[in-house]
């Protein structure tokens, strides 16, 4: 006899783990997560961990705000005094040169304020008071969000999985899903390398491996995989964790930067290089490109002009045409929901998206609408394109 569960989540990254936790917390009695490797072993492990509510897309702002509240009280959410999201609220500064990007920063900050978020525009003197390392002569608009910062994706994901287990959910690592069980237009479970498992509802949260899941379901998905490098620079003085996360729309690579243990973490905001291989996140770095980006970082933070390059790694984004996720039901197919296409900004949204997906899997109305993220939005001509265009700032 196959195992039977009310809900099965495929994928033990931050999205799957958050969803499993919320399923258990919402009272799902038999919830199971299947992960073919280890918890947090996919893109989540390679994430920069930046959390902010600054977006030009209103539904993202609402989800990011609800998620930030959960990161802030992670121990309370998980009902575990030892749980820790590793949140550092260093603040988030976004700077733009004169022109279109500057107007979008102003509009986005106005929208956020209209939604009750504590943020605003700074003049150069105020920005320098918060971040004395900055060079701002070419900057026109400076947005600032005090409550934002960064958190620890590994701690968050393992925390969600542990709390879900405590609430009665099951986590099976080292178990690969190899297909779906199907009766007509209904998915009734999953096939694994350890046998079939029946499920009332299935969530596919397998990130860059989503094309395989789509093939099992027999659907096309709007989806690509892109490679993104990050690297670390060290200056003579320590780049301390009280310095805000920085998004530099004036740099050619639209860099993002944050403190990491006294060093500067730098990532590009460009579209990345396409790949078809989800199994190889470590792609050899283009040294010239890294050095060029390091020089761009030093334009904004001149203390890094002689900065030493410490290390770098690359990771993969599951990218959609509008750089926003696809969430929820698949038309014409019951019993399965999807969560893919986080396009480099899924960590900051994960706690609330986990709750919304869990509610949807249990047949409840999600606290915030999944509708903007429906898979059909591209065919309907309603992509969720932000005013920043493509890129993870969205
Ligand atoms: C370099 C980099 C920097 C980033 N920086 C940020 C940032 O600063 N802020 C932010 O908000 N977001 C950031 N992101 C994005 C964010 O990290 C991701 O959106 C998020 O971690 C994705 O989580 P996930 O659960 O969807 O995927 P994953 O963590 O990849 O998890 C998917 C899991 O599915 C499992 N799996 C796949 N196939 C199967 C199968 N057949 N059976 C069982 N299990 C399977 C995999 O083993 C994997 O563990 C960054 C991403 C990268 C790569």
Give structural notes.
This protein is an alpha+beta fold and 394 residues long. It folds into two domains: 3-66 and 153-222 and 322-377, FAD/NAD(P)-binding domain (3-Layer(bba) Sandwich), CATH 3.50.50.60; 89-146 and 224-319, D-Amino Acid Oxidase, subunit A, domain 2 (D-Amino Acid Oxidase, Chain A, domain 2), CATH 3.30.9.10. It is 26% helix and 28% strand. The strands form three sheets. Strands 4, 5, 6, 12, 13, 14, 15, 16 and 17 form a nine-stranded mixed sheet that branches. Strands 1, 2, 8, 9, 10, 11, 18 and 19 form an eight-stranded mixed sheet that branches. A two-stranded antiparallel ribbon has the order 3-7. Strand 1 (3-10), helix 1 and strand 2 (31-34) form a beta-alpha-beta unit. Helix 1 (14-25) runs parallel beside helix 6 (153-166). The longest helix is centred in the first third of the chain and has 15 residues, at 58-72. 51% of the residues are buried. The mean pLDDT is 96.
